[in-house]
């Protein structure tokens, strides 16, 4: 699972994302985490948006290739 969360999110509390991450790790689930320092519920800064999209692409590349290979 890839969790991306803004530290100043006014809709979904950052602490909830931290607890979700902790619960996943406690249950030995693989979780990748990206906390966005100056972002809220969305990535508005162009540089941050680029970082988010690159991280999503890396995650999909790593995980979809594994899923496709193991399904064969």
Walkthrough of the structure:
The chain contains two helices and two strands. The model has no long low-confidence stretch (mean pLDDT 90). The chain is flat, with a radius of gyration of 14 Å. A two-stranded parallel ribbon has the order 1-2. It has 72 residues and is an alpha+beta fold.
Number of strands: 2
Shape: flat
Instruction: Tell me the distance between the termini.
Output: 22 Å
Which sheet architecture does the biggest sheet show?
2 strands, parallel
Helix content: 40-55%
User: Cα-atom Rg, whole angstroms?
Assistant: 14 Å
Overall pLDDT: 90
What's the SSE pattern? EHEH
- The domain count comes to 1
Q: What structural class should be given to the helix and strand makeup? A: alpha+beta
Widest sheet: strand ordering: 1-2
Number of helical stretches of at least 4 residues? 2
Q: What percentage of amino acids are in beta strands?
A: 5-15%
List segments where confidence is low: pLDDT < 50 over at least 5 consecutive residues.
none
The gist of it:
The chain is of the alpha+beta class.
Write the layout of secondary structure elements.
Layout: E1 2-6, H1 14-26, E2 32-36, H2 46-71
Parallel strand pairs: 1-2
Give short descriptive properties of this protein.
72 residues, alpha+beta, two-stranded parallel sheet, 2 helices
């Amino acid at each position: 699972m890839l969790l991306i969360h803004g530290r100043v999110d006014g809709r979904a509390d950052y602490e909830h994302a931290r607890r979700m991450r902790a619960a996943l790790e406690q249950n030995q689930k693989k979780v990748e985490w990206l906390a966005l320092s100056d972002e809220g519920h969305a990535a508005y800064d162009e540089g941050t948006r680029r970082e988010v999209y690159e991280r999503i692409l890396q995650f999909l590349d790593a995980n979809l290739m594994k899923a496709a290979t193991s399904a064969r």
